[in-house]
Fold this sequence. Notes:
Layout: H1 2-29, H2 34-59, H3 66-95, H4 104-109, H5 111-138, H6 144-169, H7 173-191, H8 198-219, H9 229-251
Amino acid sequence: MKMSNSFISYQKDILLAFITSIVGYMVLISTNRVGLVDLTIEAVLFSLASIIGFNGYRRSSKSINKHFKKFELFYGITYLIAVVSFIIGIYFFANNPTILEIELRNVTESTLLIIMSLIKSSSLIFLIFTWSYFYKYLKISASTRKNILMFLSGFLLYLMLSIVIWLITNDLNVLSLGIVVGSVIGIFAMIAQDKRTRYLTIIFIIYSSIHLVEFYMMGLGKSLASGLNNPVYWGVTVLYFCEVNRWINNEI
Length: 252
């Protein structure tokens, strides 16, 4: 019965992700203000992620694993910071109706967008702490050498892909993404030693890899907001948040 209920739960997640992608795409193609729509949808999704973390932290009993409790708190903080950056972006679009989507030159020319970028980057630092606490919670019995090898395998793979895209696009931002997100991927490689986390790990890797695809598209001068990359990203984001919510509910 438990396996059956779990299977139904995953089916619901996939259905919700599919509906989010379709509805988001329909809204996206119905307007020319694609950048505003993109940030608004992400702000809503990331707000839900933050609520998942804070709600789990609030509901957790005193007897819950202390590392998991910190994971819940930092998960909420991470995505709350991201939401703040999105709100700044939405404010920018509201005051610049002629700008349909944010390009690299807009970021360098706008103090507001530079602040938005810095705030969003800080959320990635919190993401490292978030998943470090999750790793500690799992209490994986592995040697230090194996953990180092697992971390380096994830980190270096993501970093090498970032370097390739940097060489193609000449965009230095992709290197900073490769280092910071690569560190999180490295932690996930360590987390994946626990078989229960394999699905979560796969979802997160896909979720993070979409950013590399977007940097590649940006380097080629293609539109980020109006393509299929965003609906796919929103769908995978829903799967990622749903899986984290499942872990939190199971622990509580």
